[in-house]
């Protein structure tokens, strides 16, 4: 069973530390997106990278629209990987929708995680007037989903530079566009629907794991208001608004992203691991 999960989710483990750090990618991405950040922690952590089923080099035969029809299915992928590797008290680092996926996983099995580090997270992407700004009107999301269905390559070409920003470095948007295009369009559309129609605001009070919210100064997908909302509703959370722009600072501004994570962890109490699980 363990080998099946590790193959299913294309799990890669490296590093020298006694504690574990698990990186989880966002919608339309894969574990390769973490390469500039994860390598900075390999001397101090056992680093775990994986792909959600349907993404990257995961076993796409394992994809089920029923299981992955909610973020709970992706949270179960994360927990399955943690169980297969006997992970306990790990630092979880999740990009975008993986911030909420990690939060859901921590509610189910809090012993797995000592900290949640959320990079550009959002509990809801759609505005809910008058008290919540998510960044999009529902009609805008529906329009993007329609575009995915009618012209997937055109959708990828349109959305990638909007997400990435940093127009002076077009290679970044190209990498994201290539990642979008490497995913089965039908699977990608279902993941997009699950992501952008999710509403996890009611789950936030149930999260007991300390968290760091990293929000970019200019992000079309998760504006600063979203980070401030999370900070107000997640007990034991810290908020850092960084100078980086766009929705993927781990690609566009990895040094700043690494520095903020390191600063946060240096200020946190150290978790004692009685004996390694590997």
Word description of this protein:
It is a single chain. The chain has helices at residues 2-8, 35-38, 71-84, 97-108, 138-150, 152-164, 170-181, 185-196, 224-233, 249-252, 254-267; strands at residues 12-14, 19-24, 45-49, 90-95, 113-119, 211-218, 237-245. The longest helix has 14 residues, at 71-84. The protein is globular, with a radius of gyration of 17 Å. It is an alpha/beta fold and 278 residues long. It has a 7-stranded mixed β-sheet with strand order 1-3-2-4-5-6-7, sandwiched between helices. Helix 4 links the parallel strand 4 (90-95) and strand 5. It starts with a helix and ends in an 11-residue tail after the last helix. It contains 11 helices and 7 strands. It has a domain at 2-124 and 199-267: 3-Layer(aba) Sandwich (Rossmann fold), CATH 3.40.50.1820. Residues 273-278 have low confidence and may be disordered. Helix 5 crosses helix 6, helix 5 (138-150) runs antiparallel to helix 8 and helix 6 (152-164) packs antiparallel against helix 7.
Descriptors:
41% helix; Rossmann fold; 278 residues; single chain; alpha/beta; disordered C terminus
């Amino acid at each position: 069973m363990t080998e099946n999960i590790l193959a299913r989710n294309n799990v890669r483990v490296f590093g020298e530390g006694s504690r574990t750090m698990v990186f989880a990618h966002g919608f339309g991405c894969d574990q390769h997106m973490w390469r500039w950040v994860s390598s900075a922690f390999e001397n101090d952590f056992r680093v775990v990278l994986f792909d959600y089923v349907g993404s990257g080099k995961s076993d796409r035969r394992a994809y089920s629209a029923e299981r992955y029809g909610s973020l709970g299915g992706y949270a179960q992928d994360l927990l399955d990987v943690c169980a297969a590797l006997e992970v306990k008290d790990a630092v979880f680092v999740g990009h975008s929708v993986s911030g909420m996926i990690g939060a859901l996983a921590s509610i189910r099995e809090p012993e797995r995680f000592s900290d949640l580090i959320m990079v550009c997270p959002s509990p809801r992407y759609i505005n809910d007037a008058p008290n919540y700004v998510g960044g999009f009107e529902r009609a805008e999301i529906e329009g993007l989903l329609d575009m995915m269905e009618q012209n997937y390559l055109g959708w990828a070409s349109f959305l990638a530079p909007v997400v990435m920003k940093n127009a002076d470095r077009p290679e970044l948007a190209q990498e994201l566009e290539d990642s979008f295009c490497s995913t089965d369009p039908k699977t990608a559309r279902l993941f997009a629907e699950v992501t952008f129609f999710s509403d996890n605001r009611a789950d936030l009070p149930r999260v007991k794991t300390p968290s760091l919210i990293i929000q970019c100064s200019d992000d079309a997908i998760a504006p600063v208001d979203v980070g401030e909302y999370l900070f107000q509703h997640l007990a034991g959370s810290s908020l850092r608004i960084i100078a980086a722009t766009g929705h993927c600072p781990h690609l566009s501004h990895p040094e700043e992203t690494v520095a903020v994570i390191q600063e946060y962890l240096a200020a946190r109490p150290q978790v004692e691991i009685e004996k390694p699980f590997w």
